[in-house]
Amino acid sequence: MKLLMVLMLATLPLLCYAGSGCQLLEDVVAKTLDPEVSVPEFQQYVQEFTDSEAAKNAVGEFKQCFLNQSNETLQNFDLMMHTVYNSFWCKLF
After folding, report:
1. What pLDDT digit, counting tens, does each position of 65-82 carry?
2. Nearest-angstrom CA–CA distance, 5 and 29
């Protein structure tokens, strides 16, 4: 879970800089954290970003990791991501 957090935080400035904006990231994070969204639904939602079966499987494992977490952990992760969205660094882009 810590590795996932580090990877997401490392890519945030790139996503904002690339012109996709933070809204796309917020939408994906929201779907990731939503326990009502199943693995197949999540894979369908991000299919435009997966170009191989291996990537699709990785996305499925990623979502399953979040489904295995407690509601408290999911809420804490959501709070952390909103803190990042509202940070000075994201607003620069």
Report:
1. 999 999 999 999 988 887
2. 11
Distance CA 61, CA 42 (A): 11
The residue ranges of every structural domain in the chain are 20-92
Extract long-range pairs of 57-64: CB within 8 Å, 24+ residues apart: 62/4, 62/32, 63/32, 63/37, 63/39, 64/39
User: What pTM did the predictor assign?
Assistant: 0.68
Flag the least confident range among 32-36, 39-43, 76-80. 76-80
CATH topology of domain 20-92: Uteroglobin (1.10.210)
Cα 22 from Cα 89, distance rounded (Å)? 12
